[in-house]
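>> received
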Amino acid sequence: MYIVTAEEMYEIDRYAIEHGGIDGKILMENAGRAIAERIIKQEASYQSAAVLAGGGNNGGDGFVIARYLQQSGFEVKVFQLVPDQKLTSEALYHKKLFINHHGGVETDINVEMLRKDLPYYQLVIDAILGIGVKGAIRPNIKPFISLLNECNQKIISVDIPSGLPANESVQIDTAVKADHTYIVEAPKQSLFTEWGFPYYGEWEIVSIGVPKQAYHRKSFARRWERDDVIATLRKRDTFSHKGSHGKGVVIGGQQMMPGSVTLTASAALRAGAGLLTVATVKDNISIIAHKCTEAMYHVLEEQDGTIKENDVTPFRTFDGAAIGMGMGRDPVTAKFTQRLIHDLDIPVIVDADGLHHLKPILNKVGKRNYPLIITPHYGEMAMLTEYTIDRIKLSPMAIAKEFARKYQLYVVLKGKFTIITSPDGKQTVSDTGNAGLAKGGTGDVLSGVILAMVMQHSSHLEALCNACYIHGASADMRVKTGRNTEIDMLASDVIDGLSHVFHTLF
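>> returned
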């Protein structure tokens, strides 16, 4: 599933018209019919609908929806919020078609008139504004959006809730809070932001017949789905052995933080790593071994429980490393972390304290021969970029892309919508997972799954996408099967759930 900006969606429509030979009126017909068919099927208990139509393509979709609802037996009226001269030619065409089918259209209305009429209808179809919103809502439209947010009927938005920007980086003025949104062809960026998602309500995609070639012309962002995992997840060969699936090392865990590396190591083994070594201070080994009996161990030099190791030579023989979990922020430890990042010619995943150690040497990491993967949450991304957390939440995809390209590394920006970005700017969103992951240690688990996947995939981007999907899917299954709730879930529960995920995938 592709994720597009408003400008990219316009390009896709233009391609369908100019190269696919599909007239704009037909695209509008396809969109409206597809949405109406879903409404008729899914909202069978409703018998009447008010359609609020604006002047753009959304308004035209609204006239098509109204015609099909009326033909199916709904009592329908269209409330046209703009004069005819503001309708696009396609929207005007479908208005006339609706009227020719004896459809009722109310024009020249104001908010108070609509306030009196809406209670007579069970459904309200929001077809006022489309994906072109970029700032303040026009004063003649804004009161109608406020009215919809006050009414008690079920609100269904066409393509996007009216007033909501399609693109990230745009501040919301006011927008419809839909109960359900039928997204036309491809989801827009705002669906996968913390600020935009709540406005959509339940959502689903309707196809309007755009040629597949329209998506092959450039690299659009994608939503990573179950079918993508099944298509790319490496299957085990009958004659494979433990060396076939990666020899990894987890480096970290000062004396007061043994739990973090324990979680990372356990997750890596559960996610398929063939061999796993934990490099940590001596006093932690008995604690970790009690929980992770399958791992091997390497003792790091330490002083008073703080890592003081200098030698990175023993770690050159591994296929991948995860660094930073429970590392601590001592300056001497930081130098060790920086040497590991600089000197190891293997894929390196950096998380937690390691991200703080990484920041001073960011300008040097682009020269690495093997991938560097960072896994910050929003607070850590703010530390690395010196943007505020609010600024990152407003534009997570743009900031992640800017950072990945600038420093030539992979960014896994963790959140409800985890954004995976490669050094060349390709982006994928993983939206599995739930609020049960909002607990200490779940990021350590993700690092372990990433380590295992990176050592088993030829494509680093696919490895990261699969790791994020599987990590979130484990949390989802734990809740769905009743093993946990979002309140009591622990990071170790997510590790236990990985087996269930793999079972369902294979």
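>> The chain has a mean pLDDT of 96.
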